[in-house]
Amino acid sequence: MKKMFFSLLLAGLMSSCHSHAVLTVDVVNPLDADRVNETVEIPWSVVQERVGVVDPQEVAVFNQRGQRLPSQTLYKGQPDPQAIIFQVEVPAQGSAAYQLKQGKPATELSKPKTSARLVPERMDDFAWENNRVAFRIYGPALMKVDGPSNGIDVWCKRTEDLIVDKWYAADLSGKASYHQDHGEGVDCYKVGRTLGCGALAPYVNGQLTLGNNFVTSKILDSGLIRTSFELAYAPLDVAGTPVVEIRRISLDANSQLNCISEVFINAGDMEVAAGIVLKNNKNPTDVANADPAYKPLLAPDKGYVTYAEQADALQADTTDNGVVHTAIIFPLGGMSAAKLEGNHLLATGSYKANEPFTYYSGAGWSKATTEDGALRFPTEKLWQEYIAFEALKLSNPLELKIK
Question: Deepest in the core among 63, 71, 99, 123, taking most CB within 10 A?
């Protein structure tokens, strides 16, 4: 009997220790530059095994100073947890240690910095944002009255607050148009029948095949650090083959860039192109008529292109809405060419059948401000430096050592 009691006590102690285990993650930065507000992802299976909990609401993340950090459980559209993410700060050529252990996550310490939703009250827009920038893509209801447009639209912000719901409500009620800057930012980017700010399309036999508006949407995750969703499109004729596009987009807090992953169902290997619309006098135009004041930067060998344009304003509005900066980044070696063609700055690459094609696109604004009130991208040069560093980080990811 005593032997059985000892065995049960030992099992209880082992179980107790396991439930309070600590998972240590050393994050190593291979670059000679600091990495700040960069997201790292730990598979949920590893967290569950090492920390010994089954409920995501019982896992907390701490930095090496013992401060509890905001974290988010990712489901990736599945019913069960898939991963935990949090943002790190790692010095140049250095490392930083983070611990995951049993405790309450820091959800109550922070406001969500990302969101996404279908907006049925505005003809099925799909809009998403983080604390720096907002975007939208047009849905099926708008296509019936305004024709097809599957490019990416940009909403420029100079507030850390989430504004999509507020701006839609004000605009639809007639209280305040989001095409005018009322102190928080403005929708000052025209898409038209183009790829807008970095959407992707088949580019077969030198022909860019623009898609139609999405037909279904699904939110995969939305929370403190990341929002992600999936859009599906009706079959599109690509060189005689009906192809279905599935577009997955995610946006992290503190970033200007969307991560976009595309799958083309029923397509073979083919060339694809991500594009940024060229402008003149605030309207889409072809290469020959593009505004000469704003020069595209083509750096396919480094995996990115950038463009700057004078922001739109309502016809009766004389407000200077500044400059919208845009960019596309392909993983290093993935951009086969960059060119000005038609009314786009195009970045081309090779799509492999049945495999996702992942790249990044996004925008900044010359009037956007940091938390301390400084302009974030007052010049095109600063935007180009930001994009160059983002491309460098993608080519030199943080290394995770789990202990």
Answer: 71
Q: What is the DSSP letter of 143?
A: H
Q: Which fold has domain 114-395?
A: Beta-galactosidase; Chain A, domain 5 (2.70.98)
pLDDT tens profile 105-153: 887 667 899 999 999 999 999 999 999 999 999 999 999 999 999 999 9
**DSSP class of residue 279?**
E
Per-residue model confidence as pLDDT tens digits over 15-44: 434 445 999 999 999 999 999 999 999 999
Task: Return d(Cα 400, Cα 84) in angstroms, integer.
Answer: 14
Range 180-184 average pLDDT = 93
* CATH 2.70.98 domain span(s) along the chain: 114-395
Mean pLDDT, residues 310-338 = 87
Residue-by-residue DSSP string for 284-338: E--GGGS-TTS--EEETTTTEEEEEEEPP--TT------EEEEEEEPPTT---EE
Q: Specify whether the backbone of 310 is left (phi greater than 0), alpha (psi in -120 to 50) or beta.
A: beta
Q: Coil, strand or helix: which one is 392?
A: helix
Every domain range in the chain assigned CATH 2.60.40.1180 = 22-109
Architecture of domain 22-109 in this structure: Sandwich (2.60)
Tokens coding 290: 């593009």
Interval 151-157 mean pLDDT: 98
Strand 197-204, strand 207-208: pairing: antiparallel
What is the rounded CA–CA span in Å between residue 157 and residue 377? 12
CA atoms 63, 389, 274, 197: torsion sign = positive
Helix ranges, 179-277 (H)? none
Angle at CA of residue 349, ends 347 and 350, nearest 5° = 165
Closest by CA position to 279, among listed 330, 321, 222: 321
Question: Model-level pTM?
Answer: 0.93
**Contact of 75 with 82, CB cutoff 8 Å:** yes
pLDDT tens readout for residues 68-115: 999 999 999 999 999 999 999 999 999 999 999 999 888 766 789 999
* Tokens 């095409």 found at: 179
Average pLDDT over residues 332-360: 97
Biggest CA pair distance of the chain: 91
